[in-house]
Fumarate reductase flavoprotein subunit
Amino acid sequence: MSVLPPPEAVDLEVPVLIIGAGACGMVAALAAQEAGTEPLVLEADPVPSGSTALSAGLIPAAGTRLQAEAGIADDPARFAADIQAKAKGENPQALVDLLAREAAPAVDWLCDLGLPFSVVDDFDYPGHSRHRMHGLPSRAGRELIDRLRSLCEARGIDIVCDRRAVALYAEAGRVTGAEIAAPEGTERIGAQTVVLACNGYGGNREMVAAEMPAIADAIWFGHDGNRGDAVTWGRALGARVRHLGAYQGHGNVAHPHGILITWATITEGGVQVNTRGERFWDESQGYSEAARAVLAQPGGVAWTIFDARIAGVARQFEDFRAAEAAGAVREAEDIAALAATCDLPEDRLAAELSALSGTDRFGRRFRRAGLTPPYRAVKVTGALFHTQGGLEVDDAARVVGADGPIPGLFAAGGAALGVSGKGDSGYLSGNGLLSAVALGRVAGRAAAADATR
């Protein structure tokens, strides 16, 4: 990946070029078109996918119409405070305020475009003081990608796949397009503005090992196309880069099935035990930091244990239903059967499950008095989902260098600095799609405005 001077001639000239057709890129495209330009979206894969398709597709937003209809009192200031509290104040306040402020208008806008969102209000996500996660009926990111793609197609927005950007063009400090590797050879595209929506660098194992060694050996559960292109280009252009050690992990991936198990199995009262049948941490902290906690156990695995009631809540998620169909979710009528099916010491397991009330030795407070048979259990491991550090941007999603915004260059989603602090424990549920959708919309509008000047 490199930055090159623009060629003498290009194959195509567009007002707004968007690199990446995940949720971020397609939201940016819809916003750019609405602002009066015709964007071109490039995607390296055969079809749009990205990390969004591997997620639950939930977007956190405060003050939406859907919340109001559900009687949920919320506002951007409360949301911003929750984001900063989870990250221990490590985020730039201006960026937090921007995303918290833009999230609700973005979700309302997507609803107006026909996406059937609803608020997840039957369980709590760690760190959120209100029910503010908005999801589609399947509670799956694949549905979000498919619906955004259908919207783009219906509006005549060109998404060209099997096209990987390998270099940016820049002249006199302004980004002017990109060089593309296509099946037929090299393509040269000129653009008045470029939006980087190509996510982070979780698929670049060398960068991961260098920037976040604590998670380097974890399963990579993100998209392989996330190779750090935005960071590489940004550095070559003199952009400011921040918090490259920040990431979203997840400590609830079914092993060896590789299926994400919703954290509702924990927030509704479930727990994790290691292969000795012992609990080992306060699971209510969050699923991102759970990755390291689980990987530190014998064999790098744990058992997530819950009951039939909690399974009923979890079943709203397509991934959980897939895990049940794959046999990843084991059932047991009592503790003896649970210990046998999980190959755990019955006495230790029984002692742990009998102590799930009040405030436990780890400081976790249980709202309900323990689990009740029949039980459910899933063998899980820790995984890296996506990185959270990236290019610094201003309130118009313009990439910022030492002397101010870099002309013609915008970034959003995982390509831009997120709001998850410096490590993994600052990740508040939904931060990834928050940046993809809220900042993606900002970037699309701003790139269009810049292109039409």
In short: The two ends are 29 Å apart (CA to CA).
